[in-house]
Fold this protein.
Amino acid sequence: MKIGIISFAHMHAHSYASSLLQLEGVTLAGIADENENRGKEAADKYHTTFFQDYRELLRTDMDAVIICTENVRHKEVTMAAAKAGKHILCEKPLATTVEDAWEMIRVCKEYGVKLQTAFPVRYNAPIKRVKQMINQGDLGRIVSIRGTNRGQNPGGWFVEQENSGGGAVLDHTVHVIDLMRWFMNSEVKEVYAEVDTRFSDGPIDDCGLLTLEFENGVFASHDPSWSRCETFSTWGDVTLEIIGTEGVTRVDAFAQHMLLYSDKNRKVSQQFWGNDMDKGLVKDFIECIKEDREPSISGLDGLRAMEVALAAYESSKQNKVISLKIK
């Protein structure tokens, strides 16, 4: 199977490329990037062909693409890939507006290609264990959930509204909302949020607090931020506390690490030794194509998580609860 990668604007492109090279029977068919230096460097690193125009890559004989462009370009590139008959794994958030996300889903369905959203945390071993516990009823009926996704400010296009579509609240809400939806098989009904900029001088949001009510009656809160300083030992976290009628459990998706005290770098850093969730995501995407089944994490999953983040902005702007219309 031949897979291409469009853009290395998003840092996850490197882990996806490394994952592809580790999978038997899979070839990294090419890398397209409008940033010539970045694209050529990645193509040299992963021993594949460079294309400056992603349309040229789409014209080649390959099966699927992984899209890691700036957020606002997800729709444009997804539409082009779908019309070229290539299956698609799209980096999160799926789009920057609900209308664009629905159009992406519609066009992929029209052209018969699979659209999977890149939510790799579902493939993290501790997170999968919590999902198993919930499915088995170990926690009883879920009453409430508290989540966090607190990281370092990534800078670059992430802090440019015209390229990202939103700051920390968009960037760090979608992962955790996807996990909550997946755990309970229920949709968010209402969102109340406060969004602000407290950790940087830029105009884009870098923190927020969301309060959510799900259709099944569960209340949840989420703390998305770029609050970690540059010298922090890791990029950030994904944590969840799930409270049920029969028990409470807490999970830190990245707790499987050692601390490295480096005299060379003069820094303490976390060295993760847990399972490779990005490889799990890419492997599952490849398998859904081979088996001709629906993606495990669909475009609709991507839309629902993004919809909550966008509702959070609207809630903060209007200072009121926003009701989501599930359709």
